Amino acid sequence: MKPEEYHSKDYLPRGYYPWPDLISPHAEQMGKDMEGWIDNDYTFLTEKQREKYKKMRLHMCTARMWPDLTYEQSIPCNRFMLQYVALDDQVEHSSPKEMEQMRNRCTAILRGEQPKPEENALYQHIALIRDEFRTLMPAIWVERFIHYFYQSFRYGIELEYPYKKAERPPSLHLFKTIREYSVLMRPYLIFGEIESGLVLPEHIFEHIVFQKMISHMTLTVAWQNDIHSLPKEMAKGTEVFNLVFVLQQQYNLSLAEACSETFRIHNEEMAGFMTLHSEYREFGEYQEHVDKFVYYAGVGLQGVNTFYLETERYLHGGAGFAWPEKIVNEKDLL
């Protein structure tokens, strides 16, 4: 198989997952909001990058993953969708020290510090996200969100750096460990608790079976993302953090063979998640909470799959991606 012959829909077509494919009734307004943020606040990006982000229509990812949010609830979720995607994209060529500074600064703002007037939209908007979530959600949930933001940045984005710098992938086993965090899904995963209004207490959330389900859910999204983002990453030529590339490197597989194995691993991961949920029903009075969490995670999985099939973000050749530019990384990002 030649790279140009690859199409992610051949593996993950629309409606692939056993949950409904929905969309928020507020999608149009969410799009207007995001375009306004990009034009008026994300001015540290180049004009070309801002246009790319608008064409990605990231608000549709929010609208499809969490379709039952009220408009008020959707605002910080939509705001975070843009903030974390832009952060992850634009930090690509930053040094470990710069990444650490950004992670510490964002976390400090989430915990209450105020951004300085000269700090860019990544910091201004993380403060707005903090304030909006504090208004909507209990303290236990806000703390959970902050923890997952920190964890995904520290053990996801930052741990990828040496392998991307060396342009060589880690072993498959180590890759799976890091990819669970670098897909950045964990802070998004708990948005379903906003939809349901059922916030899991800590002793349920930290239960080993529930945490294992979260691990399976997160890795399912990681492999889904690797399948859909492959056209963009093949164009880059130096990307190593994709399951397809890791499998090719470790087992000397062809592109077609590695894609088939990636799809198999994806399905195995999803089956593990669904099996745990169906077999372990010992959460007592909180079983309904867990079931709702799983349902909304499933709707999110279906929704982000539809988004991937519609967005320009992962076009062949990388034509739809907002590639980081030196002026952003070195001068304006921190």
UniProtKB/TrEMBL annotation:
<comment type="similarity">
    <text>Belongs to the terpene synthase family.</text>
</comment>
<dbReference type="InterPro" id="IPR034686">
    <property type="entry name" value="Terpene_cyclase-like_2"/>
</dbReference>
<keyword id="KW-0460">Magnesium</keyword>
<keyword id="KW-0479">Metal-binding</keyword>
<dbReference type="GO" id="GO:0046872">
    <property type="term" value="F:metal ion binding"/>
</dbReference>
<protein>
    <recommendedName>
        <fullName>Terpene synthase</fullName>
        <ecNumber>4.2.3.-</ecNumber>
    </recommendedName>
</protein>
<dbReference type="InterPro" id="IPR008949">
    <property type="entry name" value="Isoprenoid_synthase_dom_sf"/>
</dbReference>
<dbReference type="Pfam" id="PF19086">
    <property type="entry name" value="Terpene_syn_C_2"/>
</dbReference>
<keyword id="KW-0456">Lyase</keyword>
<dbReference type="GO" id="GO:0010333">
    <property type="term" value="F:terpene synthase activity"/>
</dbReference>
